Amino acid sequence: MHEQTVDVAVIGGGPAGAVAARALAGQGATVLLVDPDRTPARLEGIGERLMAWLRAEGLADRLPDVAPLVPRRASWAGEKTAHNGEHLVERASMDRALRSAAVAAGAEHVQATATLQAEEGTVRVRLSDGREVLARRVIDARGRAAHANRPVMRGPATLAVGGWLSGEAEPGAAVTPFADGWVWIARPGDGRVWAQATLDARADDAPPAERLRAALAAVAPELAGEPEGLSIRECAPVVPTDAIDPRILPAGDAAAGMDPLSGHGMFWAVSGALAAVAAWRTMTERPGPESEALATRYIGERIRETYLRQARLGRDFLRQETRFQDQPFWARRLSFPDDAPVHEAAEPGVKTAIVVVDGLLEEREVVVTAQEPAGVAFVAGVPVVEAWRRLREHGPADLAAEHGEAKARAVVGWLTARGLTETKR
Predict the structure, then answer these.
(1) What is the pTM assigned to this prediction?
(2) Does position 424 have pLDDT exceeding 60, yes or no?
(3) Considering only CA atoms, which of 23, 30, 24 is closest in space to residue 7?
(4) Which of 118, 268, 297, 331 is 20 to 30 A from 190 (CA-CA)?
């Protein structure tokens, strides 16, 4: 029997896999999207940055039951705050909607699981329905399951235990710490409540449902009753430490499982998927070992930088809560991944980095600042290093003549905010 061959097999159809499959199919690749459709019913939060991208891509209207922006409250270190906001979404429905968008773009969806075997110049994908498919490249978006049998850097063993209860209809979301961890309580506004406790996996032999009830008794005693639809997930921050195979590009939690307290996990999953698509396109349009080296370096550096930044953000947030630091959950996490600052002090300057230009990877000069230690290549579509030099040598009028008043204002504003606007008059 003739073996099916595809340009790309995307294994895993969560946000990272579905977005990657849609983008690849939209670029003309033959794409097989493999996912068993087993996402448990739970709520997750989407920040406004990701929602803005979904709107721009025409995907927001596909998502069912997305709640309006609700305040993201925290009762932390004895203070109550309300920063930014988030849209509450039914994760299983969201995943199905994004997979549907990938199919509409031309991807083939198979409801199955898969194992991978790298071969000479290709990857053999063995599906749980018995079929085998050859893929020229693979996007591995299987989540944390992709880390099995691989060397990893992993934080303290952590569980997320969630369940549904009944409560107030007023929509909102809140994070509250307690001695044994912290709890996220989300109210979509229909009388249902999703409560999820983040707990130390080693601290207690009690059943997960009992541990969730104990967490709620500590932070929200009004949410009494037996949680329904219990979800138990391992959620320690984790990142593989081995080299990236150019045939198998990771995305989402398969690339790095982020610290849940740092936030923006879904945003990083989607942006990581788009990074993998840019790496695939670069290797496809510019075949050869140089492009493969560039692509794997780009993905690897991006994963490590993002993982460490998010892990340090989570660590610093934990350190702000001083009431429980002698408790095992807190004590085990106050020094992970290290004691380095979230952003190393960086003098403003120029360095070379890999960036995406018109969908392809290139090494370009970028401006490095304390706020952006990884570097920025473009502001308002303008190459910012060139603009910075032009501004210093010739002043803002020359910049406006080259790029127009609106873009010049955006660039000058960005540079001014970082103290980089000394110019010649």
Answers:
(1) 0.94
(2) no
(3) 30
(4) 268
